[in-house]
Amino acid sequence: MARYVGPVCKLCRREGMKLFLKGEKCYTAKCPFEKRSYPPGQHGREASFRRRRASNYSIQLREKQKTRRIYGVLERQFRRYFQEAERLAGLTGENLLRLLESRLDNVVYRLGLGDSRSQARQLVQHGHITVNDRKTNIPSFSVRPGDIVAVRPESRRLKYFKERKDLLGKRTVPSWLDLYDEEHLAGRMLSLPERQEIEVPVQEQLIVEFYSR
């Protein structure tokens, strides 16, 4: 399966903001973005001082790229999400974010079972996560309201998950999810998230404008 394998801190520098792709490290002084917030590349530092006025297309493109990178989705898959969002009732931009938030890897991350979406994706791919008591190793699996997402009983004995229980209270779980059983590392999706419940620095209307050109 295709995926980005380069240094993720370069993605934050390219977008000019922290995307929190490396979990807890992004909250510390060790985060590379704290030392080099200018764009990557040979002339990145110079470009940060003499940037030209961005065109509408450039602004829309950057918003789309930023959203893709936050959720760890490649272009073809992101376009499919957008096409599905267009078919649903309601605002296309908000539908798009709901589809992205409903991904299994994102739900695992939001429940606090992983420090980042990439780590949550790895937990899913390695078969540690179940949905409604069935092992699911597809990160893009769409979780629905009422579904129960939990760590497999066999996996709870691993050192990582034993230590995870002590860290669960450090991150706030969104109101549309419920970590109802911290001892057994199990949570439930209560409903699809409303826009105000999705805390991502994204202007989804710019993405709609980009694909509507």
Model description:
With 213 residues, this protein is an alpha+beta fold. The chain has two domains: 8-100 and 200-211, Orthogonal Bundle (Ribosomal Protein S4 Delta 41, Chain A, domain 1); 103-189, RNA-binding S4 domain (Structural Genomics Hypothetical 15.5 Kd Protein In mrcA-pckA Intergenic Region, Chain A, Roll), CATH 3.10.290.10. The chain contains ten helices and five strands; from the N terminus they run ααααααααβββαββα. It has helices at residues 8-15, 32-35, 44-49, 56-71, 75-87, 92-101, 104-110, 117-125, 159-164, 204-211; strands spanning 129-131, 134-135, 148-151, 177-181, 186-189. It has a five-stranded antiparallel β-sheet with strand order 2-1-3-5-4, covered by helices on one side. The model has no long low-confidence stretch (mean pLDDT 85).
In short:
The protein has 213 residues and is an alpha+beta fold. It has 10 helices and 5 strands.
Strands, count: 5
Spans of at least 5 consecutive residues whose pLDDT stays below 50 are none
- Portion of residues within helices: 40-55%
Q: What multimeric state do the chains show?
A: single chain
| Structural class by sheet pairing and helices | alpha+beta
Distance between the termini: 30 Å
CATH homologous superfamily of the largest domain?
Ribosomal protein S4/S9, N-terminal domain
CATH topology of the largest domain: Ribosomal Protein S4 Delta 41, Chain A, domain 1
Taking all Cα atoms into account, the compactness measure Rg is 18 Å
Mean pLDDT rating: 85
Spatial order of strands in the largest sheet = 2-1-3-5-4
CATH class of the largest domain: Mainly Alpha
Q: Largest sheet, if any?
A: 5 strands, antiparallel
Characterize the overall form.
globular
Order of helices and strands: HHHHHHHHEEEHEEH
Q: Classify the beta-strand content into a percent band.
A: 5-15%
Number of helices: 10
Number of self-contained structural domains: 2
CATH architecture of the largest domain: Orthogonal Bundle
